[in-house]
Amino acid sequence: MTEMTAKETFNIPAQEGFSPSEPLSLISICLDAQTAGVVKLFADSTRRVVLQKNLGDYGLEDTESVFAWIGDPPPDVCLIDFDQNRRSAALAAEGIRTGAPETAIFAVSSQSQPDAIVQAMRSGCTEYLVKPLDRDQLLNALARVGGRKKDRKEQYSAQVMAFVGAKGGCGTTTLVTQLGALLANSYARKTLVVDVHPEFGDAALYLGLTKYRYHYLELLENTDRLDAELLQSFVMHHSSGLDLIPGPDGAEPARSVLPGAVRQTFDFLRLRYEFILLDLGPGLTEGNLELIRYCDQLHIVTVSEVAALRNVVRQIDYLTKKEISPDRIRVVVNRHNKRGLITDEQIEKAIGQRVFWKVPNQYVQVMKTISAGDTVGQVSSSEVTKNLNEWAGAVGRKAKKESRGILGLWSR
Ligand SMILES: Nc1ncnc2c1ncn2[C@@H]1O[C@H](COP(=O)(O)OP(=O)(O)OP(=O)(O)O)[C@@H](O)[C@H]1O
Ligand SMILES: [Mg+2]
């Protein structure tokens, strides 16, 4: 171990240690004079750390005053000297861990017995630095904090787009899966489709992903222990880059899902994706309403038929009564035919709003995509794909990545 001297602290090579894009803010609590001096010299010698203050006592009485005590916003790192009073130091660490969980707490002490280290770690310290401070040890510990801060910044906050059919067979699953694959493939957006059908989900089938072990309802049941690793056992990966959480492929017994599980699950998923597309089961059930309230936009997928259009009107009425803002509702006309019996004007008059998107009618190409999944040549030039790619572009907004072409997604 190398003891950190003033001379060394002024000589930290640029390539050594860590280089967070912005400096880490640092405070210390009850550091002895010598260690405080070393930390100050260290901070003065690098732009990677800004030393904010050295507090002279362990003075946290209640967690409500954490910010007033350590700063608002709280620092990235707090060094606590455990030597003056180990119990008070441990209480201070616990208070910071509870009140400012994003602050990393480093214990500093001249004691290196396992008991002392375990006590500090239990109180919330993530690093234990033994005096005299070692430069490499401190740099490495700060590098870990810098890395975690960067990871946190890279978290997403997905736009959640729900899709429900005006009636069965309007093409909801087709649009959700293909739009999702285009967002992932042509626009390099981290996209997830969730098939939230309570039974007989077919989004996986439409993407040719038929071998799966777990489905969405099981995910809901396990929300309380959901972490990145567990999530991976539910997610299937399509070659377009799209991820999918499938629905149950058969009839399902009723499941008791804890209240709040839906929100908790999607709050978790939202941080990991840029777009989440929901293939809702049929009807405006209580389950669907919860998701509709949660999502950013609801797309009602219809076709230009009287019965379907009548359902669109009923659904919008019902949702308005349930206090779902009409601003969040978009009507999509699938299998649109410019020379159809019902004109666009008649459709818009009937539903009382503009049609958000029209997808052309191309039964043969769409069927080939779903059943074979590899009919590249024909489907790539299909009007439906071009149309949906435009939609994905309008939503995805990012420069096109070099892709396998529009049809990378069809050719798994
Ligand atoms: N734009 C389109 N042009 C022609 N056919 C289409 C189009 N979109 C979907 N289809 C066809 O419509 C049928 C129903 O599609 P899909 O299964 O996606 O509908 P859905 O609304 O999800 O049905 P369900 O109510 O059973 O969930 C499929 O055979 C599909 O190939
Ligand atoms: Mg469907």
The tally of beta strands, per DSSP, is 13
Uncertain stretches of 5 or more adjacent residues:
1-17, 373-379, 399-412
- What percentage of amino acids are in beta strands? 15-25%
Tell me the radius of gyration. Answer: 28 Å
Terminal-residue CA separation: 54 Å
Characterize the largest beta sheet: strand count, sense, and whether it forms a barrel: 8 strands, mixed
Strand-and-helix sequence, N→C?
A: HEHEHEHEHEHEHEHHHEEHEHEHEHEHHH
Gross geometry: elongated
Bound compounds, each kind once, are: adenosine-5'-triphosphate, magnesium ion
Structural class: alpha/beta
Figure out the total of helices: 17
Oligomeric organization of the protein chains: single chain
Q: What is the strand arrangement across the widest sheet?
A: 8-9-7-10-6-11-12-13
Mean pLDDT across residues: 84
Structure explained in plain terms:
It is a single chain. 40% of the residues lie in helices and 17% in strands. The chain is an alpha/beta fold and 412 residues long. It has an 8-stranded mixed beta sheet with strand order 8-9-7-10-6-11-12-13, sandwiched between helices. Helix 7 packs across helix 17 (383-396). The longest helix has 19 residues, at 135-153. The radius of gyration is 28 Å and the shape is elongated. It starts with 5 loop residues before the first helix and ends in a 16-residue tail after the last helix. Mean pLDDT is 84; it is low at 1-17, 373-379 and 399-412.
Question: Briefly, what is this?
Answer:
This protein has 412 residues and is α/β, with parallel strands linked by helices. It has helices at residues 6-9, 33-44, 66-70, 86-99, 114-122, 135-153, 172-185, 203-206, 216-221, 228-232, 261-270, 286-294, 306-321, 344-351, 363-371, 376-380, 383-396; strands spanning 24-29, 49-55, 77-81, 104-109, 127-130, 159-165, 191-195, 236-237, 243-245, 275-279, 297-302, 329-336, 357-360. It starts with 5 loop residues before the first helix and ends in a 16-residue tail after the last helix.
